[in-house]
Design brief:
By secondary structure, the chain is an alpha/beta fold. The protein has helices spanning 22-34, 47-57, 69-80, 101-109, 145-154, 173-186, 216-228, 250-253, 292-302, 321-330, 363-369, 393-399, and strands spanning 3-6, 11-17, 38-41, 62-64, 86-90, 113-116, 125-128, 136-140, 162-167, 190-193, 196-199, 208-211, 231-237, 259-264, 267-272, 280-284, 305-309, 335-338, 343-346, 356-357, 378-380, 403-404. The chain folds into two domains: 3-14 and 213-221 and 276-404, Enolpyruvate transferase domain (UDP-n-acetylglucosamine1-carboxyvinyl-transferase, Chain, Alpha-beta prism); 22-211, UDP-n-acetylglucosamine1-carboxyvinyl-transferase, Chain (Alpha-beta prism), CATH 3.65.10. Bound molecules: shikimate-3-phosphate (S3P) and phosphoenolpyruvate (PEP).
């Protein structure tokens, strides 16, 4: 499905309800599979969460998790620790190019039996579940925090719990913190000090209902929309001032774009007011890689110079996001320099109209470029990709008076 989007007003307002964080949802689904008396409310309606639910309920030998990185990594650890169960965990063509070796090595050092069905270091994986008896592991922490969260999630179900030593620089740290806090909220003891994570074993948990906060990465597109408008008021529920999600740093980052954030009970209100445009926006996003595309495109729309660093993980996400951003932003006439871990965008006064944005099977490419419609009409190719994290994204844009055809 290719779509054309446009918007003919300078101001907008509206109320939206986004579903629960896909990161929190996928963690809680693993925990619920290990401790069935956990109940979850406001679960994400994303494809990534649906494939996770399906995988956990499946009795099949082959399980396909499509494009879902968290499902791939968390389920690798989960199935490796399920004694007597054998599965082949596979995914989309891109998933088969996303590395998983550090996690497999860590699990093998704990006693797991995992082999590669095609290429060494990448899915598909054949996993023969075993009781993992050891209780110490070390792994490199600068490639993906998902490997570490995967180990933490199965840790309380291991006989002696688990100590995880993180080596080198730690990337996407708030996601590790999120995993720890989810375990603690469920009643599991653990801590994360310097580079050591310790999770205590737990046989049973008392019944608990956990309400998931809505997804902050999804909220990022509305911050961007508000920023590009002259005036805006967008209300989003169900959000909290104290969040487990690192991407809630958006509230602070978008102050620089003139967007103010107010919390009213479970609703977050984004307000764009007249502001003084900065010459340069400069951010290090090693803690919040998923909002890099959003911020880059906000700067493109507003003609602001932008320097983003800490982007070394973007190359192994749904697509190589650095190359995809450069290629697509250049179609609007912009000049962009990228390195292995950074992006610099030079300001541009006039944007080319009627550009067709390729999305490369990456939901965030589609959603990040949408706010440009407030400046010029544009086409988004394969717009259905948004369902990976936010299936009702285009309907929600229509609620904000965007024309989506
Ligand atoms: O644990 C998680 O839920 C996630 C961790 C991050 O990945 P990396 O740790 O690979 O950067 C993030 O990009 C991804 O969307 C979700
Ligand atoms: C990188 C992402 O997801 P995952 O790694 O879970 O596929 C994302 O949602 O931006």
């Amino acid at each position: 499905m290719d779509i054309k989007i446009s918007h003919d007003q300078k101001n907008l307002s509206g109320n939206l309800q986004i579903t629960g964080s896909k990161s929190e949802s996928n963690r809680l689904l693993i925990l619920k599979a290990l401790y069935p008396n956990i109940e979850v409310e406001n679960i994400s309606n994303s494809d990534d969460t649906q494939v996770m639910q399906k995988a956990l309920n499946s009795k099949d030998e082959e399980i396909d998790i499509h494009h879902a990185g968290t499902a791939m990594r968390f389920l690798t650890a989960y199935f490796a620790s399920r004694e007597g169960r054998e599965v082949v965990l596979t995914g989309s063509k891109r998933m088969q190019e996303r590395p998983v070796k550090l996690l497999v090595d860590a699990l093998e050092s704990l006693g797991a039996d995992i082999s590669y069905e095609k290429n060494e270091g990448f899915p598909p994986l054949r996993i023969k579940g075993r009781k993992l008896e050891k209780n110490r592991v070390a792994l490199q922490a600068n490639i993906s925090s998902q490997y570490i969260s995967a180990l933490m999630l199965i840790a309380p179900s291991m006989p002696d719990g688990l100590e995880i030593k993180l080596e080198g620089q730690i990337t996407s740290t708030p996601y590790i913190q999120m995993t720890l806090e989810i375990l603690q909220n469920a009643g599991i003891k653990g801590d994360f000090k310097k580079n050591i994570i310790q999770i205590q074993p737990e046989k049973e948990l008392s019944s608990k209902t956990i309400n998931i906060e809505s997804d902050w990465s999804s909220a990022s597109y509305f911050y961007s929309i508000a920023a590009v408008c002259e005036e805006a008021e967008i209300k989003l529920s169900n959000y909290r001032k104290t969040s487990l999600q690192g991407d809630s740093c958006l509230a602070e980052i978008y102050e620089k774009f003139g967007v103010e954030t107010e919390y009213d009970k479970d609703t977050v209100i984004l307000r764009k007011k007249p502001w003084k445009r900065p010459k340069l926006i400069s951010e290090n996003l090693h803690n919040s890689p998923d909002i890099a595309q959003t911020i880059a495109v906000t700067c493109l729309a507003l003609g602001i110079e932008c320097q983003l660093d800490g982007l070394h993980t973007l190359k192994i996400k749904e697509t190589d996001r650095l190359v995809a951003l450069k290629t697509e932003m250049e179609k609007f006439g912009a000049r962009i320099d990228i390195t292995q871990n950074s992006l610099r965008l030079f300001p541009l006064k006039e944007l080319a109209a009627n550009v067709s944005v390729e999305t490369y099977n990456d939901h965030r490419m589609a959603m990040a470029f949408a706010p440009l419609a407030l400046r010029v009409s544009l086409n988004i190719k394969d717009a259905g990709v948004v369902s990976k994290s936010y299936p009702s994204f285009w309907e929600d844009l229509e609620k904000l008076q965007f024309s989506v055809e």
